[in-house]
Write a structure and sequence with these properties.
This protein has a nine-stranded parallel sheet with strand order 3-4-5-6-7-8-9-10-11. A two-stranded antiparallel sheet has the order 1-2. Among the domains are: 238 residues, Ribonuclease Inhibitor (Leucine-rich repeat, LRR (right-handed beta-alpha superhelix)); 32 residues, no CATH class. Helix content is 13%, strand content 12%. It starts with 26 loop residues before the first strand and ends with a helix. By secondary structure, it is mostly loops. The chain has five helices and 13 strands.
Length: 399
């Protein structure tokens, strides 16, 4: 147990400054007969400015926001000005970003609806990306379908409970980012996407792995972590181009053997913090995996209690230590019957997937040659040093 030591300041106590004296002005003659004035000597802190009587009052903080209401949109003038500025930039870049900053010091739009002027402005344009992250959107309007050239739609961190069926009319869409919402269901029309490469539905309320998702044959990356899924359908084998599948932090008890049919493409598989009682057999078929996560898996039926209150923690299957790591071992004192001496024994957590640690160490950033070199490239880039690699494709990807 490390002890915290209070840090004390070694700086000496500040002494009061000596009283200031007025200096007289004088002129001296130089060798050329000219005169010049001596510069006034100032203390380290300089002479204080004598405040005007009106300045003695408490200064009020300046508010740069114009809170007057815009006559056409009904929004505050400062908000309307920000939106209009972003729209004007998007006309040149084809990327409209109306995301709110997460930090309290950053500007927040906090939009409850997409500004109506967006749709007529970009209806016939080549707007490629629309970002509405960290706002207060609860519904997507019907007009979203007029943005037919859209390739990326970012809706993370809103209050959406579903997606409109008309969203599937965006046939050029390649990335749909809808994580950190309140989505509990998806429209059946979602299977009509023909060019969608990335679908992010992490941190939502989905309880069913919809079969319509498995019909999006163009998918390369699928994120369904931190939901309430209990099973993975065998139809997942249809996603023959899938590179990344993230199913961490669900309630999955079994992985279908059909997942092994994705061996030729699948590189990243996340199954951590589920209810798997044994290693899925299909993992042996996925010989090209670069990253696999299995930690935190424990079969259902166990209770985890709060160590202080003793109350049963709902939805928790593996205890967590005070430092945030999973508590996968239990320590106990056992009396040796032969010697009569108490021994301290450590045993693995009952019901925990024993092979999880082995797989986590063998895959990903620890052992795979590709990621070892990728890590070195990123470290070199951080130090701003030149990097030479025989793997040109890898170098171009990370540099």
């Amino acid at each position: 147990m490390s002890e915290k030591v209070a840090r004390t300041s070694d700086a000496p106590e500040t002494q009061s400054a000596p009283p200031k004296t007025k200096e007289s002005k004088s002129t001296t003659s130089d060798s050329h007969g000219g005169g010049h004035k001596h510069k006034k000597k100032k203390g380290k802190k300089g002479r204080r400015h004598k405040k005007h009587p009106d300045e003695s009052k408490t200064a009020q903080p300046k508010n740069n926001y114009d809170t007057s209401i815009h006559t056409e949109t009904g929004r505050p003038q400062f908000l309307q000005s920000r939106i209009q500025t972003r729209i004007e930039k998007a006309k040149k870049s084809n990327i409209l970003d109306l995301s709110s900053q997460v930090s309290t010091s950053g500007f927040r739009f906090d939009l409850h609806e997409i500004p109506s002027e967006v749709f007529p402005t970009f209806k016939m344009s080549n707007l490629r990306e629309l970002w509405l992250t960290n706002n207060q959107l609860a519904v997507l309007p019907y007009e979203i379908c007029v943005l037919q050239n859209l390739k990326t739609l970012g809706l993370s961190g809103n209050k959406l409970s579903t997606l409109p069926p008309r969203i599937a009319t965006l046939q050029l869409l390649e990335r749909l980012i809808v994580d950190r919402n309140q989505i509990s269901s998806l429209p059946q029309e979602i299977n009509k996407f023909r060019h969608l490469r990335e679908l992010r539905l992490d941190h939502n309320h989905l309880s069913v792995f919809m079969l319509e998702i498995t019909e999006i044959r163009s998918l390369l990356r699928l994120g369904l972590s931190h939901n309430k899924l209990t099973e993975v359908p065998p139809e997942v084998r249809r996603l023959t181009r899938l590179i990344e599948l993230d199913l961490d932090d669900n309630q999955i008890t079994e992985i279908p053997y059909e997942l092994g049919r994705l061996a030729m493409t699948l590189r990243h598989l996340g199954l951590a913090n589920n209810l798997l009682a044994e290693k899925p057999p299909c993992i042996d078929e996925l010989e090209h995996l670069d990253i696999i996560r299995l930690s935190g898996n424990r079969k259902g039926g166990y209770e985890v209690k709060d160590k202080e209150s003793g109350e049963v923690l709902q939805g928790v299957n593996v205890p967590v230590r005070h430092d945030g790591y999973l508590e996968l071992c239990e320590g106990m004192r056992v009396k040796n019957l032969e010697t009569g001496v108490e021994e301290y024994r450590i045993e693995n957590l009952e019901g925990h997937l024993a092979c999880a640690r082995e797989y986590n160490l063998e895959a990903g950033y620890f052992g795979h040659e590709l990621f070892t070199e990728a890590r070195e490239i990123l470290q070199t880039k951080a130090k701003r040093l030149p990097w030479k690699s025989n793997n040109r494709a890898l170098s171009n990807k990370f540099i």
